[in-house]
Amino acid sequence: MCGIVGYIGKEKNALNILINGLKALEYRGYDSAGIAYFNKNKIITIKEKGKIEELEKIIDYSIESNIGIAHTRWATCGDATKINAHPHSCGKITIVHNGIIENYDDLKEQVKKDNYKLISETDSEIIAVLLNKYYEEYNDIIKAIVKTKQIIKGSYAIAIICADIQDKIYAIRKDSPLIVAKNENASFIASDVPAILNYTNKYMILNENEIAILTNENIVFLNDSLQPIKKKILTFEGNTIDAQKGHFKHFMLKEIFEEKDIIKNLIKKYNTIEKLEKKLGFLTKYDNITIIGCGSAYHVGIIAKYLLEEYANIPVNVEIASEFRYKNNFLNKKSLAIFISQSGETADTLASLRKIKIKSVDTLGIINVQESSIAREADKVIYTEAGPEIAVATTKAFIAQLIIMILITIYLGYKNNIITRDLLIELLTNINNLDKYLNQILNNSYKEIAKKIYQAQNIFFLGRNIDYGIALEGSLKLKEISYIHSEAYPAGELKHGTISLIEENMPVISIITKDNIFDKTISNIKETKARGSFNIVISNKEVNDSDVNILIPNINSILQPILAIVILQIISYETANLKGCDIDKPRNLAKSVTVE
Ligand code: G6P
User: Fold this and answer.
1) Fold held by 3-242
2) Whether 134 contacts 163, CB under 8 Å
């Protein structure tokens, strides 16, 4: 959600570096873009509504500059217009901002009394106004930043340039990510690592209450008391290839194809009882688990609830983070709160973690992005190690989260004497062999199924138990990228009202991987068929009542969700592809949702 890039270096190709950086952050989601750079001792700002290509149409790349800041905006306060796009300026100050300034209405009223005129509808412009006001007052940019930080409330990552200071970029942040990096020729800031990977794979995290001051020679970090501090240098383990499409038409497809290797690499770290003890041993002391997440991460929680309750005999509560943060909860010393997040920066999930930590409840993050806020703030972290995920709609990170939850389930099931040692070893072996089954799935074409559903207005996804969790994720994936309205329902619940929506030829996609409820789900499928639906069934046994039956390989039922969800990911992809949708960057969506 929004992207920031900043560059200051010896080379004078700032415009190129900034735009390429923004392109590497496109996956975060945006609807306008802009840059500000120094040229002939002046700050020049260029911005445009729409894609970065629109901005590029009005950029003259022959202009030389060695310092600039850039931004992609995902509209929150104010429409997606050129005027609301960043950078925003006031007097000598120009800024780009990610996050939300919650008290901006009050602040706007206050500065209007001082005759400041605001031209945009955004919350962000007030930051430039305040910085300029206090810069004029103190004639000291650091003092102006400190004062502004004291006044603004909300979340922010902010990059600042000042017309009087042509050799520095300043940055601050709170509840919104920002990394800082340096190579021998330049310094960079960015919302995420892909923006700087062409120049360096070493980076540092700017923490809350710190100020970063970048020059082309060095980066100085100041703490809350304005004392210089040393930073841990992190190394990005992936490579630039990870953030490129290769021969795939879309990142989403590439990421689906990466899933089998991600599972193979993950399982190497958990494939013996000894390794499980070492990595997951701490989990045995809890009586109950609450899983918190948003979007697909929440769906992993739903599937994990069914798994953990059945195979490990542990009560599990699953909460949507945006709800959890504003409600009562009953977690105690025997509870474990698990926070699932690809980005590790989702505002609601992070706020829920902070809420729980006040109660001294133990917390575990299941996170993809290394050193992200949730990864750093949770008591313990398990990394999903899926590599950078660029497509907005998650696929490989979801699968990696699910694998971790399956590993936790079978380990706790073994410790609680529900899963035998032999079964545990068999399951670990079968996880290792999932690549064979996934290859079978990836070798199939689901285009024919896509052709049957891509013109539908509405689609139902049905399942019971774990299969309901799969249905939820299948439905979300389809909605996100193909814009077809769909709803996931627990199969047995449909008849309590919603079945009234079934019409002739409406596609109903059902998932049946659990043997003990096979016949029950079939009965529900028959109920929809009797009302004219077109039934696509993904199952581990043949279903005569289906119009299309996709059979999944018959492995342990605990692992079948993995196979079913990959099939649904590909069906969503093919459907969106047929419709010609912008698959990697669906309208209105952001990959990393850093505002409430
Ligand atoms: C956004 C993304 C979803 C994702 C959700 C949670 O809405 O578009 O794909 O599931 O955020 O993100 P997280 O990074 O916390 O997993």
Assistant:
1) Glutamine Phosphoribosylpyrophosphate, subunit 1, domain 1 (3.60.20)
2) no
